[in-house]
Each structure stands twice: as structure tokens, then as C-alpha cells.
């Protein structure tokens, strides 16, 4: 089973990297960009086919390592 | 005093801090590899050195914070043992939950390598007894991710409990949260745990201990620790 984990900064946390990317897009003349926030994507392959079990595993992975919940939130998506 | 300096893949200041401890206190610290599960018997002080553990992959300090030796460090801290985290070591302490908050990318995105002025906010911790209260000292900083951040509630608790030990200050010795070099909340450079036995700071006291290479403002930190342990 394949899953995708998205980790993003909480909205209250300042994102200097996102701001720099936003500025670069503007200087490239890319139109209509209001703001950019940078995040991380993890594509994870899981053993077995039990979706509930997989979700519990990924939640544990996020809480233990993939996200720092002081500043980040995460979302789990199943692919295909 | 028995000291142990932890070594993670990508640590690069373990030599500096081991030399500083030897230079100031005469004690040769043990270097302890991250995959160990126990600290050397009788360890009083554990130091997490600076560097780029695991290449800063995922988040600074995130992977090192989950190393097997960290369970022993947590147990040591819970017993009241002293733990000092410098730079990447501070990031590891935050990621491991031994200190609250997190260190994120410097507000102006640049790696900062220079001397910083710091105010010693309290001199009743095991790490700062040999400083005057409110003394302004110079330590070097060298970091890309030293911007201390925590939620408003945590910041209020840290301030309320007086757990900010080192704060960045301007040339006049006063803090200016709008000008702080890396954007750190409340100009925070270093904090202690509730029981005052775990200190994390971004600047490098270990690089200012030898008059041969410059100022010696960092000496008192190691003298404080040694003096504290002798008394015990």
C-alpha cells in the first residue's frame, strides 16, 4: 500500500524559506502568487493491505519523527 | 567530575568542547558514540556538541534526538544529572523533548558566524554560578537554524519561571527583540529545564576559553559546572 504524508508549518509559524521563494517567484514575473509556504512530502510504502492499520502506523511515524508538532501539522493520504 | 561528550554522525564540535573542558577543569571527558545504550558509570555531565548531526536531514537534531544513547541521557536528566547542549546539541535537546520549543531557520535566512553579545539572566544555575548576575558576555555563534520558537503559552511559562538563562543583547547591553540576529523569540539564546539541570544554548562558550585565541568569557561556564560538582 502506498501513502503520502504531507507535513506543513502551522499557520502561526513564520516561514522564512516560503517567503524567500515567494519573493523569487515575484522577481521571475510569475503572476498572481499571493503567498508561498514550504512543506515536506513523504511517500511511504507499507506492508499489508489493512488501511486502518496503515493509518495508525503512519500516525505513529508522524508523531514520533516525521513532524515536530510544536511547529508543524501533518496529513496522511492514501495513493491509488 | 566525570564528563561525557556524545558523538553523533555529523557532530563536529566534540573536539572543541572536550578540549575546553580539559583546558578549564583538567578533566578529560569520555567521547560516547550515539549507538551506545548507557553512559559511562558515574557520569556527572553529559554534553551534546555542535555540528550537523545526520546532515540536518528532516529537521536539525531530529534524528539524533531519537538515537539510542538519548534514552540514557533522559534517565540521567531525570535523576538530576547535568546536561549541556550547545548549538546542534540545543536543537537535539529540543527535538528530544528535554527542553521545550524548537529552533528554526534564521529569520533572515543567512548562516550567521560571528560573535554575539549575551546577557546572563541568572547566575543561580549550575552552569552560570561564576558569572555576575546580568553580566554581558561575548560568545561566538555559528548557525543557520538558531531562531528559537515556541507557542505563546510555552514562552510565557519560560519567562514566568525565569528559565531564559542567556539572551541576545545589543551593544548597549539591552535586548531588542526586533533586531535580534537570528529572529529568536524574546531574544532567547539559551534556556534551562524546570529543575535547572539541563541547559541548551546556541552560542559556543567552548570557543572562548583560551586567551591564546581570543576572549575567555566561556571559561566561567565550565568553571561553574566543575565547582558545582565538587561541592556535591
UniProtKB/TrEMBL annotation, chain A:
Biological pathway: Purine metabolism; IMP biosynthesis via de novo pathway; 5-amino-1-(5-phospho-D-ribosyl)imidazole from N(2)-formyl-N(1)-(5-phospho-D-ribosyl)glycinamide: step 1/2
Cellular compartments annotated: Cytoplasm
Enzyme class: ligase
SUPFAM superfamilies per UniProt: PurS-like (SSF82697)
Reactions that this protein is recorded to catalyse: N(2)-formyl-N(1)-(5-phospho-beta-D-ribosyl)glycinamide + L-glutamine + ATP + H2O = 2-formamido-N(1)-(5-O-phospho-beta-D-ribosyl)acetamidine + L-glutamate + ADP + phosphate + H(+)
EC number: 6.3.5.3
Molecular function GO terms recorded: phosphoribosylformylglycinamidine synthase activity
Keywords per UniProt: ATP-binding, Cytoplasm, Ligase, Nucleotide-binding, Purine biosynthesis
Annotated function: Part of the phosphoribosylformylglycinamidine synthase complex involved in the purines biosynthetic pathway. Catalyzes the ATP-dependent conversion of formylglycinamide ribonucleotide (FGAR) and glutamine to yield formylglycinamidine ribonucleotide (FGAM) and glutamate. The FGAM synthase complex is composed of three subunits. PurQ produces an ammonia molecule by converting glutamine to glutamate. PurL transfers the ammonia molecule to FGAR to form FGAM in an ATP-dependent manner.
NCBIfam families: phosphoribosylformylglycinamidine synthase subunit PurS (TIGR00302), PRK05974.1 (NF004630)
Protein family according to the UniProt entry: Belongs to the PurS family.
Subunit structure: Part of the FGAM synthase complex composed of 1 PurL, 1 PurQ and 2 PurS subunits.
Name this protein carries in UniProt: Phosphoribosylformylglycinamidine synthase subunit PurS
Species per Swiss-Prot/TrEMBL record: Ancylobacter oerskovii
Primary gene name: purS
Amino acid at each position: 500500500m502506498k501513502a503520502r504524508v504531507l507535513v506543513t508549518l502551522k499557520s502561526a509559524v513564520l516561514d522564512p524559506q516560503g517567503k524567500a521563494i515567494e519573493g523569487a517567484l515575484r522577481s521571475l514575473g510569475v503572476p498572481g502568487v499571493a503567498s508561498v509556504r514550504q512543506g515536506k512530502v513523504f511517500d511511504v510504502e507499507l506492508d499489508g493491505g489493512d488501511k486502518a492499520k496503515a493509518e495508525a502506523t503512519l500516525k505513529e511515524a508522524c508523531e514520533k519523527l516525521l513532524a515536530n508538532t510544536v511547529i508543524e501539522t501533518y496529513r496522511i493520504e492514501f495513493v491509488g | 567530575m566525570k564528563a561525557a561528550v556524545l558523538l553523533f554522525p555529523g557532530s563536529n564540535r566534540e573536539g572543541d568542547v572536550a578540549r575546553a573542558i580539559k583546558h578549564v577543569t583538567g578533566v578529560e571527558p569520555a567521547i560516547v558514540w550515539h549507538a551506545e545504550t548507557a553512559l559511562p558509570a558515574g557520569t556527572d555531565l553529559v554534553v551534546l556538541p555542535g555540528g550537523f548531526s545526520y546532515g540536518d536531514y528532516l529537521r536539525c537534531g531530529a534524528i539524533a534526538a531519537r538515537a539510542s544513547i538519548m534514552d540514557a541521557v533522559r534517565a540521567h536528566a531525570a535523576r538530576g544529572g547535568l546536561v549541556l547542549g550547545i548549538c546542534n546539541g540545543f536543537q537535539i535537546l529540543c527535538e528530544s523533548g528535554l527542553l521545550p520549543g524548537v529552533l528554526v531557520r534564521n529569520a533572515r535566512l543567512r548562516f550567521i558566524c560571528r560573535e554575539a553579545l549575551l546577557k546572563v539572566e541568572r547566575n543561580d544555575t549550575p552552569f552560570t554560578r561564576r558569572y555576575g548576575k546580568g553580566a554581558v558576555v561575548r560568545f561566538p555563534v555559528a548557525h543557520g537554524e538558531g531562531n528559537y520558537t515556541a507557542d505563546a503559552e510555552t514562552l510565557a511559562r519560560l519567562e514566568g519561571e525565569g528559565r531564559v538563562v542567556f539572551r541576545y543583547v545589543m551593544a548597549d547591553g539591552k535586548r531588542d527583540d526586533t533586531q535580534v540576529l537570528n529572529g529568536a523569540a524574546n531574544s532567547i539564546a539559551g534556556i534551562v529545564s524546570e529543575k535547572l539541570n539541563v541547559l541548551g544554548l546556541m552560542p559556543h562558550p567552548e570557543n572562548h576559553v583560551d586567551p591564546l585565541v581570543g576572549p575567555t568569557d566561556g571559561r566561567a561556564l565550565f568553571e561553574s559546572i566543575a565547582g558545582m560538582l565538587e561541592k556535591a
